[in-house]
Write a structure and sequence with these properties.
- Helix 7 packs across helix 9.
- The strands form 3 sheets. The chain has a 3-stranded antiparallel beta sheet. A two-stranded antiparallel sheet has the order 4-5.
- By secondary structure, it is mostly helical.
- The protein contains 11 helices and 7 strands.
- The longest helix is centred in the N-terminal third of the chain and has 21 residues.
- The chain is 57% helix and 12% strand.
């Protein structure tokens, strides 16, 4: 009755305090007859009706994540999914989320990839049109050479190619993840140009044991 009143997970200690029954006795009773109750080790209980609702919410959140981040094989982190259930800093919510995800993993509904959770079998699919748009964007950054790329100007060019702001940001994140772009203080540079300039600087510093000034480096 206690856990059916609220759509959330409870710790056994919490239920013990509310029912005046020992935590040990509650654990024993639930193990013997868990009718209507889902028990997540080591001490989380939730009504099965609510547990199913949260399962649906987690799977829906992952589907939405994949839809928005379709270029990536990876998915959402545990903390992000925990926030879909309740206050992310609440330890009971954290423990319940982990227990729920492990159950869904065991049931082959989700899987863990690079410390993120994905729908079982999810793979990013990049068609030729999207790949062409990504390649175009990378070339735009490379064409800036030693000039600092003007993000707003590249964005305006992208719009003329029917690449909206959402896609533009996603493509940049993808290029960063593939080490094509380097990011620093909100700016983006093509990684090859970054490496080229870093090499120039290091080679010059080898000949100048006392160091150089910023203006001198800019001349180089």
């Amino acid at each position: 009755l206690i856990i059916e009143k609220e759509p959330r997970p409870f710790s056994i200690i919490e239920i013990s305090e509310m029912s005046d029954v020992s935590a040990e006795k509650i654990t024993e009773l639930v193990n013997q007859n868990p009718v209507g109750i889902r028990f997540y080790q080591p001490d989380i209980l939730i009504h099965q009706r609510f547990d199913i609702k949260f399962e649906e919410k987690i799977l829906s959140a992952l589907q939405e994540y994949h839809s928005k981040n379709f270029l990536f094989d990876t998915g959402a982190e545990t903390a992000e999914l925990s926030g879909k259930i309740g206050p992310a800093k609440n330890q009971i919510i954290k423990d319940f989320t982990i227990g729920l995800l492990k159950r869904l993993e065991k049931e082959a509904k989700v899987e863990n990839l690079q410390n993120t959770w994905i729908i079982k079998g999810h793979k990013a699919v990049i068609d030729s049109k999207i790949q062409a748009e990504i390649d175009w964007l990378e070339k735009e950054f490379y064409a800036c050479a030693d000039e600092k790329p003007a993000l707003n100007e590249i964005e305006e060019k992208a719009i003329t190619k029917s690449i909206n702001l959402t896609k533009f940001k996603l493509y940049i994140s993808y290029l960063v993840s593939k080490s094509k772009l380097k990011t620093f203080n909100g700016e983006y540079f093509h990684n090859e140009i970054f490496i080229s300039n870093r090499t120039k600087l290091l080679n010059h510093l080898k000949t100048r044991p006392n160091g150089i000034s910023i203006p001198e480096y800019k001349e180089i």
